[in-house]
């Protein structure tokens, strides 16, 4: 895939701004967190109000590319790629409902694509559906139990969508255990350090898994 699944590097959890970053499914690139989603995700208890940075609105989707991929999708009903591309275009434009619709269509054709499944889960999270996001991440991990990008996102949704720091800690510990030197492992380690600093009583336990 060209686009990345969204994860957050958590720096100074509950006390500072959340840094947005993306872990590539196939290629390395970065993209900022939508400010509205960050504001919705960040817990407010025991925290000073965060200042939302000024940012430009997302660019509109490339209508010519959308038309091209829609035409290809119509011609090739068993090809997931144009559907994935449409989901990516809408995701980048922060049109998450449209992105989710095309990711769902892609998974109907290629149901064992863990990257797309996780992108769909992230879209659900940005649509304020954390339970649905977690269910979709479960599906991703059924496809690939070692999909660390999914585990990172599980931690984010548990921490900020469900206020479940223990569940988030378990997910991040599992990422560190599986891929400590990877970008995902480094992000998970920073998140764990932030949780420990803010809430030293939180217990994890990666041996029991992140799910």
What can be said about this structure in brief?
A two-stranded antiparallel ribbon has the order 1-2. Helix 8 runs antiparallel to helix 9 (183-198). The protein contains nine helices and two strands, in the order ββααααααααα.
Structure write-up:
With 211 residues, this protein is mainly α. The protein has one domain: Tetratricopeptide repeat domain (Serine Threonine Protein Phosphatase 5, Tetratricopeptide repeat). It is 55% helix and 6% strand. The protein contains nine helices and two strands. Strands 1-2 form a two-stranded antiparallel sheet. The longest helix is centred in the C-terminal third of the chain and has 16 residues. The chain is elongated, with a radius of gyration of 17 Å.
Defining traits:
211 residues; two-stranded antiparallel sheet; mainly alpha; Serine Threonine Protein Phosphatase 5, Tetratricopeptide repeat; 6% strand; single chain
CATH class: Mainly Alpha
Q: Overall pLDDT, averaged?
A: 77
- SS class: mainly alpha
Task: Please report which band the strand proportion falls in: under 5%, 5-15%, 15-25%, 25-35%, 35-45% or over 45%.
Answer: 5-15%
Main sheet strand line-up: 1-2
The ordered string of helix (H) and strand (E) elements is EEHHHHHHHHH
What's the structural blueprint in terms of helices and strands?
Elements: E1 4-9, E2 19-24, H1 35-41, H2 63-75, H3 81-92, H4 96-109, H5 114-126, H6 130-143, H7 148-161, H8 165-178, H9 183-198
Antiparallel strand pairs: 1-2
